[in-house]
Each structure stands twice: as structure tokens, then as C-alpha cells.
């Protein structure tokens, strides 16, 4: 666990008495890691100030997460000069594409520390901003508590809804008063989603059937340009966008595809091959889930030390490469079967 690794007794003594304006302490920041010993990171920020107040602990963790990538964040959503074509024009491999970013508001505590009243105020501010989204992105906001069981199940089946079943978030305090103050915005096309007050104040998500990564990216870029002009997002030039969990700092972007690679994924070293391409492997239902029917969730491994443009480029080239390898393996298997007369 990174938090444990970097918290020396000396550092603990130095930070023990520190508190942010929202009352976030070292103990609160480390609670999730303490209660969930299988945590990989084991620390959460309760607000923007946490990253400065507890910098001697957060910064080495952030550096290790960025794996030596240059520190500092500069947003770049341009796609000029990058390949724009569909990742999988045949539709054989890529089932769907999703890009999300996390955002928090500078004036409020983050979900692990926010109080009920502020959570409601924040929700109202965000809902107000979402109500003005331009044509093509506009839609409706529904509080989580107002969704029927059937509606929730339907949204979950389409990978559109978050759940309250994350024990790491629970221990961090981010699920208090559930489902109060939480909700989901869905655009008329169902392709822009905004989760409000889950792990971060906002998760802005662009969904796309198939492999049209450029279209998903441009939709997200449009929505963020609009929201950025209306909401004061927590941010600093070294750490990028501030998120509850340090794994999301920087771009706070995870761009992923659901891709079926039966030949490649059944060979040893599949995850290492993805990692070498800068891609992380998750299961079909996201973090901590398993693949199903050889369908994997592949996404950018790094969010900090890279720009949004870099993430796009890496996912595009990495997934193209994996599909080529899958095609080669399929061809080889077919040839072998033919040679055996099968
Ligand atoms: P996050 O992406 O917000 O870090 P998860 O990994 O838990 O969190 O994913 C959230 C949801 O998004 C899950 O239901 C997951 O299956 C879904 N998802 C992720 N990538 C895709 C994709 N490319 N297509 C469809 N759904 C996806
Ligand atoms: N706190 C958990 C851990 O340390 C989750 C880390 C990354 N996941 C996330 N959803 N932020 O392992």
C-alpha cells in the first residue's frame, strides 16, 4: 500500500496535528487504507487543500503513481495530426468506448469529507450548470433516490450507473447519507452522462457504441468546455485536476474500450503486453471486476504527466496494435486448422 510505504513515523508525527478548513485530518485521509488492508493506495483527499496540507505524504505517492513521468499538468484536448478513424471499422472487436473525467469544485469539500447540506448545495449548482448545456448535449438530471429499481437496473446493465458497493469509498466516508445529493444527468442521446457526488463531485462521461474514439473524445471536450466556463473546478498546475483519490490526479481522465480479444488474452503475458503499450486491464464491470467472454476493459494507465491528447493517442495506437495481433493469431490458428485438415 503506497500510503503505508511513504508514511514514515517522522512524517506521521509531523502531519498528525494538521487539519484542513473542512476538518480533513491525516487519520481521516488514511481511514480507507486502514480498514481495507488490500488497498493499493490507501489515501483520499477530503478537499483541495488536502493536497497542500499533506503534501509531504501525497507528493511521493503521486510521483510513484506517475512512474517518473514529468510532473505537472497541462491540458491539451487537441486532436490535430492524430488518427481519427474508428478503432475497429469491422465492429468485430470493439464493443464500446467510454471516456470519463473526474472534477471537484474548489469551494467545496470532496465526497469523502463533504457534509449533507453542502452536498445538496453543490448538487444544485451543478444541476443548474447542466441545465444550460447546448443542443446536442442537453438532457435531464435525475436524483438517485428518485430512480425506480427497474430504472437503476436498466442503467447499470448499460454500464451507465454507479453503485454504492465500493468498500474503499465506504471506508473513505464518501458514501455517507446515500443516496442523498447524488444523481445522474443523461443527455437526450444517452451519450453524455454526468454522475454527481459519487467518488468525485462530477464524473463527466462520454459513451459511444463501437470504436469511434474521436467522436467520444470530441463530445467530452465540448461538454467540458461548457462546464469549465461555469463551474470553478479544483486544480493546480503541478497536480492537475484535484480528485478524491490521487490515482486520478492530472487529467483525471480514463479512456477505455470494451474489446474482445479471445486469442490474445488466452496467451500468457496478456496484461504485461497491454502494460507495455501504456494500457491497464479491467473487467467488464469496471474496477475490481472480471472479464466476461474474453471482453476486457482496456484504458490508459496514466492520468498524470500526460495530456488528454496523449491519452487519446496512446489508446488509439495501443488498441489498434492489439487488434492487429489478435487478427494475426486468428489467421495462424486458421492456417493450422487447415493444415491439419480440420
Ligand atoms: P471509472 O471508469 O469511473 O474509474 P469503473 O472502472 O468502475 O470506474 O467503470 C465504471 C463503469 O463504466 C462500469 O460499469 C464499467 O463497466 C463501465 N465502462 C468502462 N469502460 C466502458 C466501455 N468502454 N464501454 C462501456 N462501459 C464501460
Ligand atoms: N482506495 C483504493 C485503493 O487504494 C482504490 C484506488 C483506485 N480506485 C479508485 N476508484 N480511485 O486501492
Automatic annotation (TrEMBL):
Return the protein name.
Answer: Creatine kinase
* Chain ranges of the Phosphagen kinase N-terminal domain: 1-67
Please cite one Gene Ontology biological process associated with this protein: phosphocreatine biosynthetic process
Binding-site residues for ATP, renumbered to this chain: 96-100, 159, 203, 254-258, 282-287
Superkingdom, taxonomy of origin:
Bacteria
**Family matches, as InterPro entries:** ATP-guanido_PTrfase, ATP-guanido_PTrfase_AS, ATP-guanido_PTrfase_cat, ATP-guanido_PTrfase_N, ATP-guanido_PTrfase_N_sf, Gln_synth/guanido_kin_cat_dom
Tell me which family the UniProt entry assigns to this protein.
Belongs to the ATP:guanido phosphotransferase family.
Any one Gene Ontology MF annotation carried by this entry is: creatine kinase activity
**Whose protein is this, by species?**
Myxococcus fulvus
Amino acid at each position: 500500500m503506497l500510503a503505508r510505504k511513504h508514511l514514515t513515523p517522522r512524517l506521521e508525527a509531523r502531519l498528525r496535528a494538521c487539519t484542513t478548513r473542512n476538518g480533513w485530518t491525516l487519520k481521516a485521509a488514511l481511514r480507507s487504507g486502514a480498514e481495507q488492508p488490500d488497498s493499493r493506495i490507501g489515501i483520499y483527499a477530503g478537499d483541495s487543500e488536502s493536497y497542500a496540507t499533506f503534501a509531504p505524504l501525497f507528493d511521493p505517492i503521486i510521483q510513484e503513481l506517475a512512474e517518473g513521468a514529468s510532473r505537472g499538468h497541462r491540458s491539451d484536448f487537441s486532436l490535430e495530426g492524430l488518427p481519427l478513424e474508428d478503432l475497429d471499422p469491422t465492429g468485430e472487436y470493439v464493443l464500446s468506448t467510454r471516456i470519463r473525467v473526474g472534477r471537484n469544485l474548489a469551494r467545496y469539500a470532496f465526497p469523502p469529507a463533504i457534509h449533507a447540506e453542502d452536498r445538496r448545495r453543490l448538487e444544485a449548482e451543478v444541476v443548474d450548470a447542466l441545465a444550460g448545456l447546448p443542443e446536442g448535449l442537453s438532457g435531464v438530471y435525475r436524483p438517485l433516490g428518485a430512480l425506480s429499481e427497474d430504472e437503476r437496473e436498466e442503467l447499470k446493465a448499460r454500464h451507465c450507473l454507479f453503485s454504492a458497493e465500493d468498500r474503499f469509498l465506504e471506508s473513505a466516508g464518501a458514501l455517507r447519507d446515500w443516496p442523498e445529493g447524488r444523481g445522474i444527468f443523461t443527455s437526450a442521446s444517452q451519450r453524455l452522462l454526468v454522475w454527481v457526488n459519487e467518488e468525485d463531485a462530477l464524473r463527466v462521461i462520454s459513451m459511444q457504441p463501437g470504436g469511434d474514439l474521436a467522436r467520444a473524445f470530441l463530445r467530452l471536450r465540448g461538454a467540458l468546455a461548457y462546464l469549465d466556463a461555469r463551474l470553478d473546478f479544483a486544480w493546480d498546475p503541478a497536480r492537475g485536476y484535484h480528485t478524491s483519490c490521487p490515482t486520478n490526479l492530472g487529467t483525471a481522465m480514463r479512456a477505455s474500450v470494451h474489446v474482445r480479444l479471445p486469442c490474445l488474452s488466452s496467451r500468457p503475458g496478456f496484461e504485461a503486453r497491454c502494460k507495455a503499450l501504456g494500457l491497464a486491464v479491467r473487467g467488464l464491470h469496471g474496477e475490481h471486476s472480471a472479464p466476461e467472454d474474453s471482453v476486457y476493459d482496456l484504458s490508459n494507465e496514466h492520468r498524470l504527466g500526460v495530456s488528454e491528447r496523449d491519452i487519446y493517442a496512446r489508446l488509439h495506437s495501443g488498441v489498434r496494435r492489439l487488434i492487429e495481433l489478435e487478427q494475426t493469431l486468428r489467421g495462424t490458428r486458421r492456417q493450422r486448422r487447415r493444415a491439419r485438415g480440420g
